Structure formats: structure tokens, C-alpha cells
Amino acid sequence: MNPFLLVVPVSLLMIAVELFVAHRRGVQVYRLKDSITSLNIGATSQFVITLGAFISVSMYTLILEKFGAFVWDTANPLTWVLALVLYDFFYYWVHRTGHEVNFFWASHVIHHSSEEFNLSTALRQSATGFYFKWVFYIPLALLGFPLKVFLAVGFIDLVYQIWVHTRLVGRLGFLEWFLVTPSNHRVHHGQNDYCLDKNYGGIFSVWDRMFGTYADERASEPVVYGVRKPLHSWNPIWGNVNHYVLIWQAVRSTPGWRNKLMCVFAGPSWQPAGATPLPEFVPAQFERFDTPAPPWMLWVGLISCALGMLVLSYYLAVQKNLGTGPSLAIAAGALLFYFVVGLLWQSPRIQKAAHV
Amino acid sequence: MSSLAYTDGFLSLVCLWVLTRTNLPLAVRMAAALLGSAAVLGVLRFSALYPLVPWHQFASLMGASVAFPLLAVSLAWPDSAVAQRLKFTVIFSVAMAVLGLLLVTVAQKRMLLDVLTVLSVLALVGISVKRTWWAAALASACMLTGLLLFAAKFSAMVWLVPGDYLHIGVALGLLGLARTAAWTNEPLGDTPQEALAH
Q1: Is residue A309 less than 8 Å (CB to CB) from chain B?
Q2: pLDDT tens-digit profile of A170-195?
Q3: What ipTM was reported for this prediction?
Q4: Which residues of B touch A258 (CB under 8 A)?
Q5: What is the DSSP string of A31-90?
């Protein structure tokens, strides 16, 4: 069975629990449009990644067979522990690269595009990261860790990261020293100056401490979630391609081939010499993105999201037995569906009607 | 013990020496580190001390697909980000490593990788000659000769096998290039504001 099939109901259940707890405490941590967009983006990524995972698995297998040096006893728990720790170490570098190299940020930015921070944000995953992430895990194949170990620890690392996307859990004492927790992950999702390029760890925060990218949450300065170049869209497809378009525009408008290369490979905020500096970020002045929508439109969003989740569950259940053609057809149909839903939500006519 | 262990040992020592030369561009030292890793694994393999054959093959592949292009870029554009700044040296290295891996494991076109390697060393010779850095040109020519003798499976002396010519040629080339090429440590003219990520 595809393990991601379990992630859908478990995540929805966790979201329901978070909503309930937030309601009991009288705090609002969800906004309907943002959360539905997160779920739609998550579903979009799953439709694509089930196909993209083929690249990761194939490359890992090829390298393992050709260059894998050692044989590991999978009955020994230490094998799994070591593989998990090593996987998490390489995850740190995948993640750091995803933030510090513009072309890879284009893939990862969608995860940070939510201006809320809740369990639905965890599902807001990129649909375009599969083409480069496998490269970072080559050392595991060279060490000879079997494919099933690689896939299992990768899944554990991913699932662990769901629960840290919440505002409802405070600091966790000594666990903050070595684990990724909701507190230090809130910093990672912040756009305040002290949050930028911090806390890349997946399960263990020790990598951040080792490589100087750790930052503690500050009670004196509440985290403002989101990114400095906001997405301003509810469309999952546009969310996935938006930053690639921005890079393309920057490459076209920047003179000199060295500068053009820097637009692609330097950090996301790189600017050529002489460019107008970016405006200073003032947390108190930040306004979250919103668009007016009539109540029926919200219902359309909810129903379309539920429908998408059902189709995704069916797809994950049967995908193994489908041929490439039908898989591609279902994935393409799903992407079109989400694109249309995104267009509807931001239709000027509907927004105008909501104002009236 | 095979002669390859000795010549790999010589190459390892040269690479170690290059690695310690902090006035050289980062990319040159990265190339030396990659070639040196392959050479150390070669010593372990050919001396039968601890043969890690798959790792030696992998490190050799990395040397071929990453180290020589790194040297060529460093000589062609000594002040470039790839030559001078760790982040961009790593990005370039990873990109070339992926290209090498894809050529060898997926496309199964080892020949294309060999062509890429030879073109990189030819570029070293060409740039040196064009800029009249004759010592660098001679060093690059040594490297090219080693590569070509290895490719041609040349074996004129009974106590040297083709791999030895490769090791000696690359070692002499690296030694010469590191001593003579006009590599500088000048930073780029741009002012990256990378602290403002997101």
C-alpha cells in the first residue's frame, strides 16, 4: 500500500484536532481560503510527485547497484537509526539549498507562501522539487543502504515534520536543544529579519547548531509568517510556477551573463550592483493577503477540496496498477481542476459581486 | 603491490599540497580534493590495504566529470564566483557530478564523459597558450598527455601500466598549474545581499 494514502486521513484528523483545540482556547489559527489552498497545493504535489518519485527511486537504485560499498543488516535497529540520522543530515542540506539557491527556492517557496502557520501549512508541499532532491541522498546509496531503508527513513523524516507546523504548542524544554519543534520551526517560517535562513533541520536541530543556522523564537517579536515576495494567489498551479517566472523575468531584465547566472544561482534576494535596495521589512506593517468572496464561493472551495482529496486517495490507492498513460491523464486532469478552482477564487467578477 | 598504488600515492601527495595552498582559487583546491580522494582510494585499492572498488570508481568518475571542468573554469575566469566562492563552486561541482552520473549510469555513454574531460584539459592548454602562460601550458600538456596515454592504453615500460601515466600526468599537471598559473583571489565586483533571503 502507498504509505502516502495514510497521510491524507491522518493529516485531516490532525487538522480537525488543531481546529478543535484552537476553538477551545479561543484563538484563530486557520483562515478558510488559506487552508483550502494549502490542502489543494498538497494534493497537487502528490499527483505530480507520485510520478516524479520514479526519478528518485531509479537514480538511487542505479547508484546503489553500481557504487554501493557496504551491506547493511536491516534486522539490526542500528542500521535504521544510522540511516535516519544520515538522511536527516542530508535533508538539512537539501532544505538549506532550497532556501539559499534561487532556482531551488523557486521550488520550495510554495511551502512558505502561506501567511498562516498551522497543520495545513505542512501539507503545502512543492510539486517541482523531485528533480533535484535525490542528488543530496547519493551518499546513502554509496554507503549501500538498501532502497527500502532509504524510502522508509525518508517517509519518517517527512511525517515527523507535519506536527511541528502549529502555533498551539509552546516551547518544549530540553527537546529544543536537539529536536525540531513547533517553536523553532515557527522561526523557520517567519519573515522577520531574525527568522531569515534559519532552522533548516527536519527532525534534529543539531545540524542548525553545528552549521550556525539556528535561531530561537523571540517572545519580544512575534513571528510574521510568509515570504518577502508574497505569492498573492490562491492558485496551486500558479503557486508552483510563480517564482520560476520571476527568475525568468529577472534573467531577461538583468544585463551581463554573470549577473544573469547570479539571478538563477545566488540567493533569492540577490541584486546586481547598483540596484535599488529592497525595502526594509517592518513586522507591524505587514498585511496578510486576502480577497473578498461570497459565502457560496467558500462552499465551492470546500466541496472542490473534498472532491480533490477523494480523487487523490483513489489515485494513490490504484496508481501502482495504472499504466503511465492513465496515471498521467489523472494527474493532468487534477492539475487542470485545481487551476480552474484557483481561477474561480480570484475571479474579479466574483470578488466584485462579494463587495456588492 | 601494484605500481598504481605508488603513482596514486604520488598523486595524493600532490593533491594534498595543492589543498594546503590557500592562495589558490577555491575551485582549484576543490578539484585537488576530488582528485586526491580518488587517488587515496586508489592507494587503498591497489595496495590491497582496504579495497573499496565501487568508491574508487565513483571518486574517479567525480574527478573526471568535476575536477577537470573546475580547473578549466578557474583558469578561464579566475575571478568568477565558481572559482572563488564556496557556494558557487559547490553548485557547479554538483551540476557537473550529476551530468557525469547521468552520462555513465543512465545513458551509459562513458565515452561522452571522457570527451568532456579531454575538452576541459584542452581548454586548459588553449587558455594558457593564448595568455602566454608557458609554464601553465606545459603543465596542462602533461595532464593531457597522461589522459591520452591512458585512453590509448599505452604501456611502453613493463613496470608502468596505462593508469600510471594518467596518475603521473595529472599529478605533474596539477603541480605545474598550481605553481605557475596566474590565479588570483580578487572578489567579484557585485554586492550580493544574500542576508535578505525569502
Answers
A1: no
A2: 999 999 999 999 999 999 999 999 99
A3: 0.88
A4: 80-81, 188, 190
A5: -HHHHHHHHHHHHHHHHHHHHHHHHHHHHHHHHHHHH------TTSHHHHHHHHHHHHHH
